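Hey, can you fold this one?
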Amino acid sequence: MNIRERIEKNEELYLCEFAAKSSQTRGRLKPEEKDDIRTDYMRDRDRIIHSKSFRRLKHKTQVFFSPLGDHYRTRMTHTLEVSQVARTIAVALELNETLTEAISLAHDLGHTPFGHAGEAVLNKKTHGKFKHWFQSLRVVDILEKDGKGLNLTYEVRDGILKHSKGRGNILLDKKNSAITLEGQIVRIADIIAYVNHDIDDAQRAKIIDKIPQKLSSVLGDTHSKRITKMVKSVIKQTKESNYQQILMENDILECLNELRDFLFENVYMSDVIQSEISKSSKIISDLFEYFMENIDLIIQYGSTKEESVADYISGMTDRYAMDLYYKIFIPKSWVIT
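Sure. Predicted structure:
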């Protein structure tokens, strides 16, 4: 028995009956020989961490574009916070921590520069065909490794595809949820992470002072207390449902919904953020039109010009997009040296 087989045997012994066991994966798009040391989900996690698209997350926006402070979140730190929350829940529920981690680390690989502002522009330019969760799957299936993709397992790919919610339902019905409980954990860990860290960043930027008293009285008055409350609620309610799906107590879920609405109204739609969105949207829009007219300048992996240009632009970091915009559109005579 090799190391991988011993790990798989331990999963059978120590994970709960509802966990996604590594030995029972539905497999990859292209079959591969098993590794002697790592399970399939361990290999997926490692491939994601070593990918170029993962490294680029450190220079992609979460909410605040190119902030001057060192402590604002980026897409990378958001991803790590999602992973931490998700893994805590998975371990408490005796589910597969490695699968949960792999989905968490890959869930936002397809995000554009300038966050959801960039996504909105590309969606419009591609006539409604660009969504960051589809793009994240496209990154791991096709775009990484010069068009070869990462060839991840079905369970990780499914979790990536079903993580996003926008202002939609935080919890999906079982029919539309990820096929694994681990994938469902990532969906709720994503919103637990971003709602709480966006409050922290908005307070740092002095856009808001505090959250409504009725919410802090239920969820807690600090970042740590709120996350702890939400995480414990997920664990408790999921166990009480006998693992039918990943759930949260109704009163905590209602507060989480209200907290998300509060952020949309007071932070994401604030004059400060909207001003930045206007500028970044122009950058993405102009770059898109430029490469549509100069398609030979980029490698094309898409079935249409629009898809190929969206692939190229969505892979950019904020910094690269701004530098490229200046290089293409700002006359050299305007640049102060």
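The chain has 15 helices and no strands. Let me know if you want another pass with a different chain boundary.
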